[in-house]
Amino acid sequence: MSTTTQTRTAVVARGLTKVYGAGDAAVHALRGVDVDFAAEAFTAIMGPSGSGKSTLMHCLAGLDTVTDGRVGIGDAELTRLNDKQLTLLRRERVGFIFQAFNLLPTLTAEQNIRLPLEIAGRQADQALFDRVIETVGLRDRLGHRPSELSGGQQQRVAVARALISKPQVIFADEPTGNLDSRSGAEVLAFLRRSVRELGQTIVMVTHDPVAAAYADRVIFLRDGLLVSELERPTPQTVLDALMALEA
Amino acid sequence: MLRTTLAGLLAHRLRLLLTSLAIVLGVGFIAGTFVLTDTIDAGFSQSFAADADKVDVVVTPADAEDDGTLPERALAAVRAVRGVRDAQPVLSGDAPLIGRDGKVVGDYPTAGVSIPASRMKITSGRAASAAGEAVLDENTAEAQGYAPGATVAVLDKAGDRHEFRLVGTFDVGLDPDLAYRGAVAFTPETARLVTGAKGFTEIDVLSSGPAPETLRTAVAAAVGSGAKVVTGRERGDELARRNHVDTAFLRTGLLLFAAVALLVAALVIYNTFGILVAQRTREMALLRCIGATRRQVFGSIVLESAVVGLLSSVLGLLTGLGLGAAAVAVLRATGTDVPTGTVSLSPQTIAIGLCTGVVVTVAAALLPARQATRVPPVAALGTQTEEHTFRTGVVRVVFATLFTVAGAGLTAAGVLQNPGQVALLTVMAGGVLVFFAVLVLGPVIVRPLSGLAGWVPARLFGVPGRLAVGNSRRNPRRAATTTVALTVGVTLMTFMSVLTATVRSTVSDQLDRQFPADYILTAQTGGIPRSIADTLRASRDLSAVTEFRGKKAKVNGHDYEVGTVTRAALGTSVKPEASAGTLDGLGAGDVAVADFVAQDLGVKVGDHVTVMSGGRSVPLTVVAVLKAGVSLLPPFTMAEQAFEQRFGRVDDAQILLNAAPGVPAERARAVVDDATAAYPAVKVGSTTEIRGQFDEAIDTVLMVVTGLLALAIVISLLGIANTLSLSVHERTRESALLRALGLTRPQLRGMLSVEALVLGLVGAIVGVVLGVLYGWAATATLTKDVSFRLPVTQILVFIAASGLAGVLAAVLPARRAARASVVGALAAS
């Protein structure tokens, strides 16, 4: 199952199990997943509805507790951390992009982007800030509030917010789910550029083969288990793999 | 539709709990007031009825109000009536009791009475049956440490001391006069000797057989027109009715505070329903989608409020029963002489409580219900609830301006008027209008104010602090209503504290200015013998002995006291302030008049008044009109020598004196005490004591009012808690996002606490500003020269306490927000 790579590993999961509920009502969302995510790479997680891909992401990001197994981000063992330590880990090492943008309505675009740094009490590296703003093309929108931005612009603010703190890994949950195809393509292009140019590590959950094709590697989940994976995907190869999964 | 509404209510039981608490407390206050006063009323009625049953017929003077009495022969006449088994007189007068310190007891002379044995409630020992025996009321006996067997001394009419053997103690019952002054009871003959009473205040008749009504007619015929004759039962009813007026006064006072509490509750409910409607936009839209009319949506909200109002009113009635019972228990436990009946909810209380609760709740929900009808059906398809944007509308500006201008105008008019009740009422009316202006302007001013109140927290608490301040300004309408509820309570508290502080310092200043004296001598009965002033003046340890004298006389045909003051003291130890003319060189034919008397008689400086004394009329010229204030000077002040010539050698009414410079207070006091030791009726007071008593009285008023306002504050805190928990509910996703971005649980809790702190501070700031402003305006209408005092410490405490209370109100909502799972909250949309 494990892949031999020459590059460093950013995130690692071993025997990851997640059970919701107990007894007869127990739902096994993950049934022992072993997976590595390479640093400075763009990885997509795919699978049919209910395959456990969102749960996997939540557990990898330290948003949800795991039932069994272990998760590591860099040298940190997530499964050994308490809530406070997990929060600090998210603050320092993890970035998020959500389907529903999730910007704070009271803050301007720039304030939203700087929020993670402010929470961590860190100063923004102005050069990085400028570069991120250039990358996502938001220079003239920085003073606007979310309600004054289009969906695509809001998601670009969210991408910038994830990039600004230079996290060890960014988790993106269906980042293009709420966008039209053009805005979606733009956002995905930014994500890929941030991997290429900024050396960012990105793990993205999606059910869209076209979105997955932007990644360096796609892993496929079914019924809580890792079933296959694909290097250097194209929309067609992803679609084929998905068909094979359904079969 | 009905079923949908009720199902919705059931599903959101918890959500409505906080809302209903506001109404429960408000209605509870009202019901509690009625329960308490009803219980006291019932207690009085029962006691009066029990008293009345002991006597068949009561004879009282026809003009009881005018201190009239029944003559001796009335008793003989009554006794001669057929069917009278026994007739006993009631006598009443002054019999100053001498306490253990050798001075007369209390501020007013103890009453000397004789009460028929049938009506006297002996609590220990027995009633007086011989000339040398006396019975003391139990409260005075306890306070002075006298028990049956002891020897007590009282002063008779002439001021001579008489000793009696105490044979028992008694309960004065419901007579407020005897309860206040204390009473010594004797046999009728002794009472007459001691008090010098010329007649009877009452004759109690017992029947040997005839019905009370029959006997009443016979007795009435016997005593003639100078007396009023009623049966015992009628007398009891009359006393109960008179007492009912007192409880009605207490009831009105308490209901005023209940009204404030209900106003605050209405604001809280208005806000809660407003938020609930906003949050249920999709639900409303869905109802409209599937065919509900606007009227039905409106009706469903109104119905919901009616159900909430009804349920909470019922709970409020029970709370009121509890509150009333608690108040009654406190009354009993503290041993006050207020009789109490059985605690119960009368049908009237139930009706009033339910109506008030339901009407207030429904009325407060009307505007939000109208808002709900404006939700378009298409909103059901939208995914996100719109963030409320607030724009200052023209209507709001117009109304705010109108209210502000009218309110400020009235206030200014009141302040500029001559001090008096009219001025005060004008200012208060202006205050109400300005409050409306604040209510209307709330959403406009809450933004800058929360910026101001949040300035420090935003810098102190980092990101959570800044986010919190942002959140507090985010929905100005909601924030304004939430804080205004708190403003009501804080305004009234600040108002009271400014008022009391100013009255305190004004009175103290006037005392200092007009009577720079250390000690004041007064006589409880009669006058202070002139020899005392002579003795005091001879002492080297004392200085500035000032005598005040006075005598009743007819001035321009009206009864007034005409008096004088030690000549040398004028301008030195007594500095009366003249509003016209001057006291300098007050000559033999001159007189100074107090301002209120000058107004009554319509005289001014230069006019002549005629004083009748001893059958001779004396013309005097008015040379000064004096500000009365706390002046000890009589309405008409003459020169000392001229007064002596006209009225003779009159005893002193009061003596003011100072310790000589460098003399320790204890030594001066000892000299004064020595000089007055032989005169039990002459009491020595120090200005510090007087001031202390005054301060105590003011503190008590402030404490009671603060306690009664506390409920309004508690309700407004419920409002803050309610608004916050609903906001937390609205912002579940946002909180989850912040947690995902690395905000720790304590930081999230801190964020909500800071938001509550800012809301509390904003409410307090507005309240303090209004309270100080109107406290100042109100004091300006009291008297001409007010020494305005800002109780800075108290006000700072109010502000700090409001902020703290806000934080307290945020504890539960914050816990709930922090406990929510990040993943769950993010998933829920």
Automatic annotation (TrEMBL), chain A:
Alphabetical keyword list: ATP-binding, Nucleotide-binding, Transport
Every ABC transporter domain range: 11-247
Keyword ATP-binding set for record: yes
InterPro entries documented for this protein: AAA+_ATPase (IPR003593), ABC_transporter-like_ATP-bd (IPR003439), ABC_transporter-like_CS (IPR017871), ABC_transpr_LolD-like (IPR015854), MacB-like_ATP-bd (IPR017911), P-loop_NTPase (IPR027417)
Domain of life: Bacteria
Annotated transmembrane regions: none
CDD domains: ABC_MJ0796_LolCDE_FtsE
Gene3D superfamilies reported in the protein's UniProt record: P-loop containing nucleotide triphosphate hydrolases
SMART domains: AAA
UniProt GO molecular function: ATP binding
Protein name listed in UniProt: ABC transporter ATP-binding protein
Organism in which the protein naturally occurs: Microbispora triticiradicis
Lineage: Bacteria, Bacillati, Actinomycetota, Actinomycetes, Streptosporangiales
UniProtKB/TrEMBL annotation, chain B:
Domain ABC3 transporter permease C-terminal: from-to ranges: 256-377, 708-821
Keywords: Cell membrane, Membrane, Transmembrane, Transmembrane helix
Top-level lineage group: Bacteria
Localization per record: Cell membrane
Membrane topology note: Multi-pass membrane protein
Transmembrane parts of this sequence: 16-36, 254-277, 297-330, 350-367, 394-416, 422-446, 483-503, 701-729, 750-776, 788-812
Ranges for domain MacB-like periplasmic core: 17-188, 480-673
InterPro entries referenced in this protein's UniProt entry, alphabetically: ABC3_permease_C, MacB_PCD, Membrane_comp_ABC_pdt
PANTHER family associated with the record: BLL1001 PROTEIN (PTHR30287:SF2), MEMBRANE COMPONENT OF PREDICTED ABC SUPERFAMILY METABOLITE UPTAKE TRANSPORTER (PTHR30287)
Family (UniProt): Belongs to the ABC-4 integral membrane protein family.
Protein name: ABC transporter permease
